[in-house]
Prior knowledge:
single chain, Rossmann fold, seven-stranded parallel beta sheet
Amino acid sequence: MQTQTTSDQHSSSPYQDLRGRTAVVTGGSSGIGAATATLLRELGARVAVIDISPADRGDLWVDADVTDPHAIGDAFTRIADSLGPASVLVNNAGIAPPGRFEDLTPEDWDRTLAVNLSSVYLCTRSALPQLRSLGGGTVINVSSIAGRHRSLTASAAYAAAKGGVIALTRQLAPELAGDRIRVNCVCPGLVDTRIMQQNVDEQRRADLVGTVPLGRMAAPVEIASCIAFLASEVSSYLTGSIVDANGGIV
Length: 250
């Protein structure tokens, strides 16, 4: 009796097999985005990263501002020409400036909503013709526990934007289901990223970890694993789902 090797098992699993697909990850130069780009590529996808910072985790880096409609349109044209039309879109780009509401300027508000929410609209709109040309695909939006409950480390603008990402996900899912395009959302809790380290001092981080039932922050790859699941055919009956990845915070 022939024994199946680990690599054989991986190659036969639809979760592990993203070969032949082009995946686009926004904000893929660091944190959750970088971990996602790395994992999707390991699972066989051709990966394009859209980010204003250089990225070395994918097959193609496109230097584009996710708040600029023309730049995003050009980015998706370049991606299709270089790697093929996108079948997976991960809307991950985001900023998380800290601060209390009374210190939030109109400029800060507008910028935070543009990067965290409007970019989801712009990138999905630009990806849609490519997804349709392939007969379907999947969009994964990265929201936050801030959109579910409240922000623990960033401003009210961040919470509002991430709440909007959840609402947009729920609206798009039924609208695009007829095109065989699934739209889902991941809501990370506390994740050990550079933004977390910048926004919260060591004592505050320790206090926050004390509120997590699992007793620790997530590693970026743990959130990337949720995204990879939603990108795969294992999740083929999921659309409009909001996946909480927060270590048990309720």
